[in-house]
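Input sequence (712 aa), recorded before submission:
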Amino acid sequence: MPATPISWQAHAFEYTRDFFQRSVLFADILRRRGNQYLDHLRRGQPPVLTFDYEILLDGRHMDPPTNYYLAQIKDRRSPPGSHSADFEEKRHKALLQESPDASRRPFVIIDPRAGHGPGIGGSKRDSEIGMALDQGFPVYVILFNTWPVAGQTLDRVQQAMARFVEAVRDRHPQAGNPAIIGNCQAGWASALLGAVRPDITGPIVLNGAPLSYWAGVKGKNPMRYKGGLTGGVWQASLWGDLGNGMFDGAHLVAGFEDLNPANTIWDKHYYLWSRVDTEADRYLDFERWWGGFFMLTAEEIHFIVDQLFVGNRAQQGRLMMNAQPVDLMSLKGPIVVFASHGDNITPPQQALNWIPARWGSVEEVCRRGQTIVYMLHDTIGHLGIFVSAGVSRKEHREIIASIDLIGYLAPGLYEMIISDEDADGLRQVRFEPREMGDIMALDDGNEDEAAFMPADALSRFNDSAYRMLARPWVKAWVNEANAEALRQLHPLRISRYGLSDLNPWMAPLKQAARGVKAQRQPVSPDNPFLAMETLVSDAISRGLNLYRDFRDGILESWFFAVFDNPWVRAMSPDGYLESRATPTECRPQWLDRIDKGGFPEAVVRIMVLLAGDDCVTCRQNLTAYKSLADQDDRLKALEGGALREMIWRQSCIVTCDRGGARSSLTRMLPDKADRKKALAIAADLLIGTTSADVKMMKAHAAIADLLGCKPD
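Predicted structure, token format:
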């Protein structure tokens, strides 16, 4: 039925009333956000954890001191405000008591210190912490205070983290080294910790963690150009000096928001305004974390920008910490990398390219006895990788459930694939062998990374010039009073306290919002003006996205025009530094024992040959490894670490001489009954009934033929 003038007037009146009511409620939510920001500051910006916790070690009382501390998560929710009154008192208490479950491998979860505060990995029940607790694992978190200790460096932070991990390991002496989960910035910090102290770290999970800072696809990953286009690390030095030795984390948050102006300026606010009756609590919960700005020392931010973001030294094997080289190939425990194609801060190339850059080939990964697993999400954004409840219920749940089983995989490179839920609500997990080319296929080639070498050289030159010519004048002007004034004048802070009850113009909003709620009349979904509103919003969002794409394209073209030309590249005559050769972990004497050993060695070698023959390994196959010791009295010694050590050694032999490893099985198993028994054990444990097992069944048949054991 065509609309009449009267109906249009009715629709217009209804929409206008709703527009006004939504605007009042939206403004009141911003007022509440400002008050929440101030309250969070008054309480010392405690972690946004939704779980109760106990402080075990406080880094401020260690030597050297840091602003980090270790806490144990309790398997219950925190009552509202439970950490407000006694938070400082609890921090100073060392509650090193007996763990309630010392038999399970503990998890240590580390949240990013990249402008925001800690606790986001446990801000919801369905989170990394929640998934680990649901499966019965002890959970610890490494948290941090707002202000770092004066003179704090990343070297000192690494020492503190190592002591925390040692404390967790000592509380669970029978459980093996702790599994580490590092989110974003904490991911690369966890990887560096594992490389420096492989003796105390177990499996390491890197969620959205960059370690290849120059990698990316042209036209898609503009954040990597910022360091070069702004002249490099000298700006970090300047802002550290303007902060009187402290770098304001609000600058990092502003950089994240600048990546997506449509979301920052319009989309997230329109989403709240259009759903103002239902979205307030969710919005305020997230803003408590997003609006909590944490500091770094000038030394810390200088190291991060100079050595990692601009210098890319971790990937090149040129990083130094505590006066010793840090080589990511020194990682011993299994590595799990979780990245997403929808992540514009840590795209898959930056999360994964360090693997082929350091190891070079899957054969070298195998020779060093390393197991690397990666998993890719199609759409989730950077924060969603470690914040989304949906991701936690699927990806993080399955990663945590598989963490001990991954150690039974033959050394190599795998992609972890998770199926959708079946009718019973269960998921199948499989590990598919991959080559380094599969990772590099995610990129458009790494030739463009050569342009980052002169950008790094220019960065060092600019920083030296700033320190020599400008720093003395800046430091002469700066004191704590004007440094704090500069922090308080940051736009992100003004947008919060400026719309709080500190602003007298906001006072009428509280009463107005109460009146609107009492008289609330939402617009009907079929109102034509509501449809026009949606069209206008979409047009604004698309316009801002168009601006972003144009801006990023110009910046990318400018970067390569400046740095990818022979004149500027002459500033770095060494060119792109290839990864240095690293001694293999395979011991020569192991190959001397290629035909040595008996029944246990032969069983494990057959299983390694089957799993490593480009065959997909399902998680239920790995679960079966736990029962290997029960299959025969001669296998009783193969439990836990002994089995993993045996898998490592046999994998090394198979990698170095696959043909010799196969043919020597006849000498290791001279008795035909033992041959049949070994083949039967391997088949029972590894081969199921799924289509993914077809290749493994063929490989098993080939080994059976070699051993002269035809199937019955």
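Checked by second reader. Residues 77-100, 575-584 have pLDDT under 50 and may be disordered.
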